[in-house]
Amino acid sequence: MSDKPENKQGVASGAEAGRAARSDRESTDGAARASANAADESRSRFGLPDNLRPTLAATHGSPIVKRLFDLTAVLAGLWLIWPLLVLIALWVKLDSPGPVFFRQVRVGRGGQLFRIHKFRTMQINAEAAGQLTVGADARVTRAGRLLRKTKLDELPQLLDVLFGDMSLVGPRPEVPKYVALYPARVKEVVLSVRPGITDWASIRMIDENELLGKAADAEKMYIESILPQKLDYYLQYARSYTLWGDVQIILATLLKIVSR
């Protein structure tokens, strides 16, 4: 008689364990479905090609380690290249009227807006004619042509990394106009990390301006062709970044710039 209550308790405990296990599986399956839905929605909205499908595994490095790496690298970099920054600033100022820096509102982590730093490469008030730079854009200054080709105009973004608005590596920060086109789930994933100075999209699509220059409708081509490809790269990075992966991207960026 005394064994029956114990057996009932054992059965109850086993049932609770089973329910807990099922709950965990359902939670895991739900997360996987959410990731898949984000990828499917982005492809549906923009027609993303299958060969650029984002990795669904949400395994990435520590944000704290990434931030410490950013700070260490940026402080060392600024100490080494500050003479170059001063020379470029003087060149920009003497080459054409206007400020040394170009400041533009971009969308950062969590949808927070910030003003990005770049060396000015265009005539003042150039944005009035559009936010895309297309081909041999007449608005680009003489100094700006070389700065853009060598990506030296991006160096002031080291300050944005120092201030915490950006990272050395991450999805490139877009203007609000184009972020508004991101599918909701895709936006949530992409904006979960700090935007970066460089990423695989920046490397593999480095000739974006030239492509836009050949298009009959540059705005349409950017939205329907280039932006979808960028989003795939952004999704892959946000879900699977690592410190070693960041180092590889930085080295690949330097190699790409030198080889141009």
UniProtKB/TrEMBL annotation:
Start-end of Basic and acidic residues biased regions: 19-28
Region (Disordered): 1-46
Keyword terms: Membrane, Transferase, Transmembrane, Transmembrane helix
Family: Belongs to the bacterial sugar transferase family.
Descriptive protein name: Sugar transferase
Signal peptide: none
Coiled coil: none
UniProt domain Bacterial sugar transferase: residue ranges: 66-258
UniProt xrefs under InterPro entries: Bact_transf
Transmembrane stretches, start-end: 68-92
Superkingdom: Bacteria
Molecular function per GO: transferase activity
